[in-house]
Amino acid sequence: MTSLLLELDDVVVEYPAKGRGKEPFRVLHGVSLSVAPGETLGLVGESGSGKTTLGRAVLGLAPVTGGEIRFEGRPVSGLGRRERRALSKDIQVVFQDPYTSLNPALTVMDILTEPLLVTGVARAEAERRVQKLLGHVHLPQDAARRLPREFSGGQRQRIAIARALCRDPRLIVCDEPVSALDLTTQARVLDLFVEIQEATGVAYLFVTHDLSVVRHISHRVAVLYRGDIVETGDAAQVTEHPEHAYTKRLLLAAPVSDPERQAQRRAERLKAAAS
Ligand SMILES: Nc1ncnc2c1ncn2[C@@H]1O[C@H](COP(=O)(O)OP(=O)(O)OP(=O)(O)O)[C@@H](O)[C@H]1O
Ligand SMILES: [Mg+2]
């Protein structure tokens, strides 16, 4: 028996070759990591390193050709349709773009009741739960009657978070969920993620390219570099005293608000480039 929620064991993801005689395109080269119940694992790495692919593999949406993904100790690859549906209650997702991830033709009430209705919850009960959920993500009660386009980006992301929460998941895969928001809104939405975790014990696999975001929210951090995990550890440890050269470069590239630190970093970056 394991106390881990999610385990990736030497996971390989390959996309089929485009054209005959070509090699398949290997995006993840044997990735191992784990997430405990109630924990946030921040997954960082530059663009194209395979972060989204890793999240999609966990959701069963990417072609896993090697290794194993386990949820609560059970392999998730090769599940039948019924088991997969059961799992889709426990693992939810919040995407980056709050402008395309919500169906524009549906009211917020319809968007949020739909996942409940398809699992047999009665409409009155579903609507009652949705009203409560809107309160949890700090949206006004009258939000239920409105369409997604009548909300700001930050509010839409709250709707997406409410949708992910409505079936009481154990794990939410968050793929750059605050990257499209301005800094103040980012901070508020990140606080909401933390607050929800404290209230519900949900775990997050939190994908981001932004180290300040990852520092804010994660318990542990895994650094992905060209399809390999090059470093994992305690969030403060990895973001303040990185071991791996790639993590150090990533840190140097991250903007800082303190001008003095910034000047120092520019100097360090120059030195790193020269060596
Ligand atoms: N469906 C697909 N078919 C073929 N190749 C793909 C597919 N999806 C992703 N890739 C490739 O896999 C690699 C990793 O992509 P991925 O989207 O996981 O990166 P990422 O780390 O999320 O980047 P970003 O920070 O830009 O979102 C890229 O080289 C991409 O072109
Ligand atoms: Mg991505």
TrEMBL record:
Keywords: ATP-binding, Nucleotide-binding, Transport. Residues 6-251 form the ABC transporter domain. GO terms for biological process: transmembrane transport. Pfam families: ABC_tran (PF00005). The keyword Phosphoprotein does not apply. GO terms for molecular function: ATP binding; ATP hydrolysis activity. The keyword Disulfide bond does not apply. It comes from the Bacteria. Transmembrane segments: none annotated. InterPro entries: AAA+_ATPase, ABC_transp_ATP-bind, ABC_transporter-like_ATP-bd, ABC_transporter-like_CS, P-loop_NTPase. PROSITE patterns: ABC_TRANSPORTER_1, ABC_TRANSPORTER_2. This is ABC transporter ATP-binding protein. The lineage of its organism: Bacteria, Bacillati, Actinomycetota, Actinomycetes, Kitasatosporales.
